[in-house]
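Customer escalation, tier 2.

The customer says the design service returned an amino acid string that "doesn't look like it belongs to this structure." They asked us to rerun it and document both sides in this ticket. The original structure tokens are below, unchanged.
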């Protein structure tokens, strides 16, 4: 039997570990502190609810408000808090399998500078960012047991661990909008977006092919798979209230490959479990108690027990 302690979104909150009986830790990302930056997101979401076409370039919004020097200092303080959390988890001496979240400043590079110029720019920039396969070194500094699963496969305790981080919403776009109105782009731009989307999927597929087929796969994604019981936004203050906001790439991966288990977060209120075919989906929730202990019979490719330590979402 293998016991994996799953930890949800923390946003700078040090977890209260409820058990020390585990063989490894799996984290869905978002270690960075939200104390200074979250108010700007709230302000932006409030504006989006009034005006779906309002500016959503959060970095530019903060930059305009506090200036470049303080903007960089805020991000550095957020990352350093995330590093303290990972050092604490590292002190247990167990392997830590993780991906970065959208709060962890680990996005891949993009040539696009002006997100607001067009719908194509907005969507293409996210596709570029989601290709990131490295975790910000400030977060992982001094940690000895980190196993970066971003488009990478790790084998441990007769389990395959593979991951996909960073995603903050459905990657697959058609003519439905990022915020509610119709999208506008040319046929050429649409083909480029499809190609960028497929590039993410193919990169994940390449990592998965390296697995040991004799043993179960533990899939870690920052954003919970799309259109499940766990990815629906239930926050009246959000412009996306009542909508599914999970990862379409994570859903496609689970539908195609049916890993034994998939853990994801991002949607804080979506704590719980669900199924996609043979895959058990788990969202541990948000905050200090957002933990789930998963006991796996790796020889029989079965989940023996799932124990949640958090019952309600912490705001």
């Amino acid at each position: 039997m293998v016991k994996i302690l799953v930890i949800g979104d923390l946003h700078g909150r040090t977890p209260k570990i409820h058990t020390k009986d585990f063989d490894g830790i799996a984290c869905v990302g978002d270690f960075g502190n939200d104390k200074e930056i979250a108010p700007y997101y709230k302000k932006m979401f409030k504006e989006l609810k009034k005006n779906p076409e309002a500016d959503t370039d959060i970095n530019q919004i903060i930059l305009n408000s506090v200036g470049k020097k303080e903007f960089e200092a805020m991000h550095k303080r957020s990352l350093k808090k995330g590093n303290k959390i990972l050092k604490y988890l590292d002190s247990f001496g167990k392997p830590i399998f993780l991906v970065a979240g959208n709060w962890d400043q680990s996005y891949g590079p993009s040539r696009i500078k002006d997100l607001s110029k067009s719908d194509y720019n907005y969507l293409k920039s996210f596709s570029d960012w989601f290709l990131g396969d490295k975790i910000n070194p400030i977060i992982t500094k001094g940690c000895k047991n980190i196993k970066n699963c971003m488009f990478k496969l790790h084998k441990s305790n007769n389990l395959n661990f593979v991951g996909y981080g960073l995603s903050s919403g459905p990657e697959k776009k058609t003519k439905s909008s990022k915020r509610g109105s119709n999208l506008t782009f040319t046929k050429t731009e649409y083909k480029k977006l499809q190609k960028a989307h497929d590039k993410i999927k193919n990169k994940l597929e390449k990592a998965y092919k390296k697995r040991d087929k004799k043993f179960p796969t533990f899939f870690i994604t920052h954003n919970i798979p799309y259109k499940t019981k766990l990815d629906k936004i239930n926050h009246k203050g959000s412009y996306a209230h009542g909508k599914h906001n999970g990862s379409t790439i994570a859903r496609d991966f689970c539908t195609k490959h049916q890993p034994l288990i998939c853990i994801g977060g991002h949607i804080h209120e979506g704590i719980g479990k669900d199924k996609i075919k043979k895959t058990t989906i788990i969202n541990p929730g948000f905050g200090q108690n957002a933990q789930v202990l998963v006991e796996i019979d790796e020889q029989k490719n079965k989940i023996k027990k799932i124990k949640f330590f958090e019952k309600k979402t912490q705001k």
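Tier 2 assessment: The sequence is consistent with the input. The chain has seven helices and twelve strands. The radius of gyration is 19 Å. Sent an explanation to the customer and offered a walkthrough call.
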